[in-house]
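Exercise 7. Given the components listed, write out the predicted structure of the assembled complex. Treat all entries as one system.
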Amino acid sequence: MGVNVPRVKLGSQGLEVSKLGLGCMSMSAYYGPPKPEADMIQLIHHSIDSGVTFLDTSDFYGDNEILIGKALKGGVREKVQIATKFGIVSREGEMIVNGEAEYVRAACEASLKRLDIHCIDLYYVHRIDTRVPIEVTMGELKKLVEEGKIKYVGLSEASASTIRRAHAVLPISAVQIEWSLWSRDVEQEIIPTCRELGIGIVAYSPLGHGLLSAGPKALENAAEGDVRKTYFPRFKDENLEANKSVYEEMSEMGTRRGCSTAQLALAWLMQQGDDVCPIPGTTKIKNLNDNLGSLTVKLTSEEMDKLSALADTVKGERYTFMTHTWINANTPPLSSWNA
Ligand code: ATR
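Answer.
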C-alpha cells in the first residue's frame, strides 16, 4: 500500500505530528465494551508503522491510557506523539469539570503513570472549568512544561475568548474541536481565532462518530452500552432519516470517484489547511487503512463546496451535554472532592 503520511506542525512551539492522527477512545470506552487488548495493540502498532504516529487519548476514556502505555513498550515511545487530556471527572455518576491548579498537577502525574512515560507530548484541557479562571489552569500547566512533564499544551472545546486568554499565559499549540462536514459551527469564531494566533487545529469525530463513514449501519452494529444510542441526538430516530441522506449523498460522490465516504470526509478536512489534523477513531485495521487512503484523495473546489453544503441539512445537536456550555448549566459548586 505505502501511502506517504505527511508531517505537519501544530502551533509554533515545535510540535510536529502526522497529518492524520488516531483517535483511541473507542478501543476502551463509550462505544460498547473495551475491545480485546492484543488486537488494539496490534492496531496501534500498525498505525505507527503506517506513519500515523499522533495518538489521541484522555484520562476520561476508561483504561485507554494504560492500553497505550502497553503499546509503547519496546522502543515504540520515541516514534509517537502522545496527546492526552484532563479535566472531566466522574463523581457518583455525575460529570464535573475541574481546572484547579492542584487538580491539574495530580491529573498529569496520574496520566504519566498510566501511560508509563516521562513526558506527555501534548496535554489538553479537556473541558473548560468556568468556575476557575483559565489563567490559573494555564499557570499550572506552564509549571509542568518548565518541569519537563509536558511538552506542549492544548485546549479542547474552548470558546474563542478562553483561547485568547489561555494563549496569553502560555502559547497554545493545538485546539481540539469537533469539526467535520456536518459540524461546521466552529468555522465562525473558533477557527479564525486559532488561525490569527497561529494555533494548530485538531479535528475530533471527523467521521461524525461513524455516521459519515458507515451511515445508519454505524448504529445497527453498535454494541450494548454504546453511548451514541443514548446521548447523540443526531442518531435519534427523529433525526436519523434526514441525516441518512447526508451519508447517501456522500456515497453517490464516493461511488463516482471510487473512494469511500470516510475518505471524502477526511479529505474535506485535510484540504481546509496545513494547520488541520483530523483524528478519526477506529478499532479496525481495515478502517485505518481506508482512512489512510484519504491522503491520496484530492477534491475539486466544486466537490469541496458540495460537501460543505451538506451540513445545512443535518438535524439534531452534537450532544445533549459535553459542549463547552454544559458546564455552566449543570455543574454544582466546587466542593470537597479530590483528584
Ligand atoms: P469518534 O472517534 O469520536 O468516535 P469519528 O472518528 O467521527 O468519531 O468516528 C469513529 C467511528 O467511525 C467508529 O465507530 C469507527 O468504527 P470502527 O471502530 O469499527 O472502525 C468508524 N470508522 C472509522 N473509520 C472508518 C472507515 N474507514 N469506514 C467505516 N467506519 C469507520
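Discussion: Residues 243 and 314 are 6 Å apart (CA to CA). Residues 323-339 have pLDDT under 50 and may be disordered.
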